[in-house]
Amino acid sequence: MKLVWGFIALFMCFYRANASAAGFVKCPLSQTKVLSDSAELHCEVVGSPLPEVQWWFIEGNEPNETFTQLFDGARDDRVQVNATYIAHTTSTIHLTDLGLNDSGTYECRASNDPDRNELKKTPKIKWIRSQANVIVIETPTIISDPLEVYNQTSAVLRCNLTETTLPVKGSHWLWNGKVIDSSKSTGASPYTTLRLEKITMHSGGKYECVFLIEPPVQRVVEVKTPPNVVAYKHSENGDENDKTLLTCVSHSYPLPHDWSWYKTQENGSLSAITNNTTDKYEIKSTPNKTSLAILALNIELDKGEYVCSGTSKLGFASDRIQLRVRSRLAAVWPFLGIVAEVIILVTIIFIYEKRRKPDEIPDDDDSGSAPLKSNSDTNHKDKNVRQRNSN
Q1: Mind listing the pLDDT tens digit for each residue in 75-131?
Q2: Which domain holds residue 197?
Q3: Within 13 Å of residue 185, how many CA atoms lie on the same side as its CB?
Q4: Are 277 and 271 in contact, with CB atoms under 8 Å apart?
Q5: Is residue 53 domain-resident?
Q6: Assessment of whether the complete model's pTM goes beyond 0.85
Q7: What DSSP string describes 249-295?
Q8: Listed residues 224, 257, 278: the one ending a domain
Q9: DSSP alpha helices (H): ranges in the chain?
């Protein structure tokens, strides 16, 4: 029995040697938000064993403070709490659709005391705490002029920030979420303008004036352009029994909310094409693009003119595509033509060689070759030479 108690004591000593109190690595930061905005607070804690983290909301002032623990799904599901326990403890609380009643002090508590949640026992280690304030204010008023721009070649956009006591640290404009560098200002003026010298189908969209207060506020001014639909290629070629793809795009604002495809008949009328027309057609559309896939092309039935049409809140526009369908042997004909030309050329050369008159063969008498000298003449000359030498 003593041996068992000895092992228990040894284990407790080992546990205490490796245990460490909880401590904050990251603390939540105070924030100022506007109505209907969202806020996120984050804290990280180390300790051994891993500490538990809780979030509390504090209302009122001492000594009349009230503490309310916040769980995931609190406040009509506007509170989301996430926590991970791996190398250390991390926890995040996310507050959505903020109201004035959400203003107050939010507290991150952490403890790794085994008795931290026991109601009948006093924990040996107190909860450590870190607080941050979330201040929710009413949205400052921004007056824009004009409210929107439609079908104009140029415009001047103006914004005026009113009814706020917060200091302005600068302003800029956004176009479809991207900062317009030339519009950046570091001045404290509550007034900003943006001049659009030339409005085209590519320059329409959402323009936002942003004032750099805490937190930043913005106002949207829509620049709308008439519908514009353009075929990616106005002429397409396809091979028999193959698949072809016809595509149309739009760059106007607002983008089309409905796309349609038609085929021009011989009498000039338009026949609507849908995904349910036959198994030959597949239509895929996004707000800025539509495509028509035609399967198993037929020379007689599928060639012709196709029309794509896009409809937006401001009207509709269309464009036309001419489709030509070639026979599968179309690519072979040039090769066969070359082969035929080679065969004809070889045949002509062969016939010419056969029918040409042969050259006359020369006789031996007319060969023009000199008679060969006999050996006797050579011997005779050698003999005369020897006789002269002897004399």
Answers
A1: 999 999 999 999 899 999 999 999 999 999 999 999 988 877 776 766 666 789 999
A2: 141-224
A3: 18
A4: no
A5: yes
A6: no
A7: E---SSPPSEEEEEEE-TTS-EEEE-TTT-TTEEEEEETTEEEEEE-
A8: 224
A9: 2-18, 74-77, 299-302, 333-355, 375-390
Tens digit of each residue's pLDDT (9 = 90 or more) over 266-285:
899 999 998 876 788 999 99
In this structure, the answer to whether residues 301 and 245 fall within a common structural domain is: yes
CA distance readout (Å), 311 to 174, 281, 290, 318: 27, 21, 12, 9
Residues 118, 81: one domain?
yes
- In degrees rounded to 5, what are phi and psi of residue 123? -60, 140
Residues 26 and 108 in one domain: yes
Task: Please identify, among 224, 243, 273, the residue that sits at the C-terminal boundary of a domain.
Answer: 224
Q: Which two tokens stand for residue 377?
A: 């003449």
- Considering the domain architecture, whether residues 167 and 249 belong to the same structural domain is answered as no
Q: pLDDT by residue (tens digit) across 24-79? A: 999 999 998 988 999 999 999 999 899 999 999 998 887 888 899 999 999 999 99
pLDDT (0 to 100) of residue 331: 64
Which residues, 6 or more positions from 335, have their beta carbon under 8 angstroms from its beta carbon?
A: none
Q: List all residues 6 or more positions away from 82 whose beta carbon is below 8 Å from its beta carbon.
A: 72, 91, 92, 94
- Note the Cα 167 to chain centre separation in Å: 37
